[in-house]
Design brief:
single chain; 7-stranded mixed β-sheet; binds iron/sulfur cluster; 25% strand; globular; 3-stranded mixed β-sheet; alpha/beta
Length: 216
Amino acid sequence: MLQVARKKTCCKVLGPGIRSVIWFHGCPRRCPGCIADTMNVATPNTMTDYETLSPSQLADWVLKNDGIENGTIEGITLSGGDPLFQTANDLAEFLSLVKHNSELSVMCYTGYRYEELLNDSEKRKVLQYIDVLVDGEYRQDLDNGQRWRGSENQRFHFLTERYRIESDDWYATNERQIEIELTINGKVLISGVPSKDFIANLTAKMETLGVDVDFT
Ligand code: SF4
């Protein structure tokens, strides 16, 4: 089974084109400045209202959205938490279903280094379904504002030909974008990679206005 903290379709800020994004629950690393803190384990704010879905249930959600949007969805992005912290067999089964039933590309963020995944006989199975892996922990001191990466130590690994020709552009682009949603129960949902200190600064400003916001 897979633990899913949040999912969203039609996201334009976490990878190329319009994408469905899945934020998996759980990451043990506790990188200082992590924007997904409430989705991670062993933190004071640990989110408890995640969904537990089978690989086929999650694939059904992805494929249904792909059909509804009539091919406008280019791919899926896996974020978190850390997707590779999920059970590798379940994650591989989910991605196999998506890949065998669509043309969707797969981009995946992880705190693991690519070499660690290659040396792990279980997690390695997932790599065959990923077009682009973004690897490595978030480092606040190396956060230089680049698109789709939290910090400069993180690397794009083009594991298939799908986006390899664009690799220079992916590394050269310095423009970050985010999407912000306000839910009816007062939560602010942020998608994308925000600028360094964005959440802390926004929280401080909201407090001065007397607005209590629960970021998720
Ligand atoms: S690896 Fe990613 S999700 Fe995990 S704590 Fe670090 S920044 Fe957050």
